[in-house]
Amino acid sequence: MVDDTTHEPTHATADAAVDEQDFRDLMAGVCAPVTIVTAAEGGLPYGTTVSAFASLSLRPPMVSVALDRASGLLARVLATGRFGVNVLGAGQDGLALRFARRGADRFGDPEVRWEYDHGLPRLSDAPGWLVCELTSVVEGGDHLLLLGTAVRLRTATGAAPLVYGHRVFGTHSAFATAEAPTAAVAAAAAR
Fold first, then answer.
1. How confident is the model over 82-109, as pLDDT tens digits?
2. For residue 144, how many other CB atoms are within 10 A of its CB?
3. Alpha-carbon distances of 75 from 46, 70, 103, 105, 174, rounded to whole Å
4. 135-179 pLDDT per residue, tens
5. Are 39 and 47 in contact (CB under 8 A)?
6. pTM of the model
7. Is the peptide bond before 60 cis (omega within 30 degrees of 0)?
8. Is residue 101 packed enough to be buried (19+ CB in 10 Å), middle (13-18) or exposed (0-12)?
9. Is pLDDT of 118 > 70?
10. Are 168 and 36 in contact (CB under 8 A)?
């Protein structure tokens, strides 16, 4: 059922037409893909969880990633001109939370396998992976929008995506439902 009632901002200010918390609450209802964006500098890996990730162009293959101006990762991407995007799958929400926390030893979990791919930290079991060359940077309030050209990719067919909406992790429910019959058909065909 769709709620079509109009909600007026609860904390309007003279400085802004839209209250920050009201904007956050609205955007929480927009499902977003969950990724871990990585960089490497001086032989050290850097990474953070990013849900502001989108396809931008097919010719050339480009993506956009938004990073907070205060992000330590942003400084590494700007310095090296490259970044990696690990597209997470269903069940990898613990990893997403770990990389979202400031000060966490993000790469220190011995249960999680990382490797370097074209000099960038890649999660071995990420359903999707992109190596991107930084093409341009766009100012966007308290974030910078990084536009990157994909120069290498790797994908796992049939992996359910990890998404974030209403402040919880999940997956695309129709895809999760459709996945089971597809696996059953594949198993029957293999006999």
1. 999 999 999 999 999 999 998 778 999 9
2. 18
3. 10, 9, 16, 18, 38
4. 999 999 999 999 999 999 999 877 889 998 888 888 876 666 654
5. yes
6. 0.80
7. yes
8. exposed
9. yes
10. no
Can you tell me the distance from the alpha carbon of 182 to that of 36, in angstroms, rounded to the nearest whole number? 28
152: tokens are 């290498």
User: What are the tokens at 49?
Assistant: 């969880």
How high does pLDDT run on average in the chain?
85
- Length of the chain equals 191
Q: Which two tokens stand for residue 53?
A: 């990730």
Per-residue CA distances from 1 to 10, 43, 93, 148, 170 (Å)? 24, 52, 28, 39, 20
Neighbours of 117 (CB within 10 A): 18
Residue 85: both structure tokens together: 């995007």
